[in-house]
Amino acid sequence: MSSTLDRINEIELEMSRTQKNKATAHHLGLLKAKMARLKRELIDGVTKKGGAKEEGFDVQKTGDCRIGLVGFPSVGKSTLMTKVALNSSS
To answer: What is the tens place of the pLDDT at every residue in 20-68?
Structure first.
């Protein structure tokens, strides 16, 4: 059985070998989440086993993001985007 640090190093190695593109984004996200959980275990000193639901974990922000607005027609999605674009350019 490998230690937590060994597993973190394995994940970092796999992330460095994986190409970064649209097809691998989900896989890289899962690896980041797994690494964050392992780092949290190191910090807290507790390993959770069994079916207990975890509260969450931190994932470091990297790169650009995408936001999608979903809603019924004529509810103001375009108006909101226009207002945000005007305020961010000021």
So the answer is: 888 889 999 999 999 988 888 888 776 555 555 556 666 677 777 777 7
Q: Which residue has the tokens 């975890």?
A: 54
Task: Report how far residue 41's alpha carbon sits from residue 45's, in angstroms, rounded to the nearest whole number.
Answer: 5
Could you tell me the two tokens for 13? 């190695």
Amino acid symbol at 58: D
Give the residue extent of every domain in the chain.
4-51+66-89
Question: For residues 77, 25, 31 and 56, what is the CA-based torsion angle, rounded to 10 degrees?
Answer: 0
Could you identify the residue written with the tokens 């000021």?
90
Angle at 50 between CA 48 and CA 56, to 5 degrees: 45
Whole-structure pTM over 0.70, yes or no? Answer: no
> Residue type for 78, please?
S
Separation between Cα atoms, residue 9 and residue 38, nearest integer Å: 11
Contact 12, 35 (CB under 8 A): yes
